[in-house]
Amino acid sequence: MNRRDFFKTTIGMAASMALAPSLFSLESGMMLPLDDVEFSGGSDAQTLIIYLMGGMGEIIANMSNFDELKTKDAKYNDYLNIFNRTSDGEYWVEAGGEFIKEMVDDGNATIFRTCLQKDTLRAHLLNQIRNMRGNDVGYDSGMVSTLMHILSRNVSGIEQKLMPNVSFVDSNFQLLTDGGTSSALPGSLKPVSFSPTRLSNPFTRKNSAVDVYANYPMLDDLSNQMNKDAKWNPLIGQMFANREQYYSFVEKLLNSALPEGIDYRSEIKGTVRYDDFNFGNTIEAAMRILLMNPDTRVVSMATQSWDDHSNALSAHRDRGYYLFKAIKTAMDHAKAAGRENINIILFGDFGRNMMINSALGWDHGNNQNFMWFGGKKSINHLGVVGETKLTGSYGRIFTEPAEDSYTFEPYAIAATFYKLYGVKNPEILTGGRKAIGDDALGVNFVKPI
46-202+272-429 domain in CATH 3.40.50.620? Predict the structure, then answer.
């Protein structure tokens, strides 16, 4: 048995259901106003959240100020001349810009260029906590956990569904923080975690040194005997009883064929492919789960750090290319399956410089791109939203929203996410920040349910 992965995904779930709810009450932080949430229901949305650890430089998806940038400090022009722009001048080709452009042109993406952190606090951990929890007022619950609490209260039978909450990161990830409530999430709504490098089956017994297949009945009987009397051990027995269901689902997942035209490793002309490389592996696995299991409402993952204070040109270029290639493949995968309810959203700690520093890197900035792909069933895609201008000098040149440009704080991302699933007043969970489109933008970005 792959005991480490199995117990990581099951024992924590069982224990959370068994221990007294009072043990999970928070002594600090503010309590989520879950009793005041207005919920309409009816959404079948599924979402892959990709958190950009460290903060991606916005130049990948915003080269609108590039000509002006090149006039700011001529000594860096030799380096800036390596950038090639897409035909519309908007995206960095070598960093996946052609993939972004194609999705925007297809009406399957919205690039918000003015997601602005209004204060000047550019520390990684602080912004990860605030942005992934979707508030700066002290609610100690990650966006995904908050949604699971809302669904638990409002969607009948959600706790009996198969893996509503899936993650390719561990439970310490800020999106998954479960606090700010009087009791923890039910175990079935806690994240089921998979390896981020290669999808494998954590419920398998194939790694055992003994012939476990011949001894399944013995193992299950032993589990029932050992766990039937103690106060919380029966729940471990319950998880062992459910192991076969989870095992069978993941095996089916691993062995399912990709649709025609979607390829994994080969370079067959006319196909798009998930690369056998970090982003490709994880995004392909996430899409398999979302497409095969409508019970999964959210999958969360994180990229490697974009905190490139040196040698950013090559690091951002390569990372961006593989990320957006994988996302474009995912969108083609969803289209081939006839699914328009799957959303992919990207955001991170903050943005970065536009001008490289003396180490050929990009330092922290306050403005970032927020990107939303897919989900046409629920989303009115708007193409590129927001205009930027340059500010600062020399190696510390950043973007900020241009005068009269639409802008929002990162907490509006959480409000938009909650609205997608049927929350009618998400601003009560985000310190007053409304969902994108319910503010000065004046359009329904998220379609009414």
Answer: no
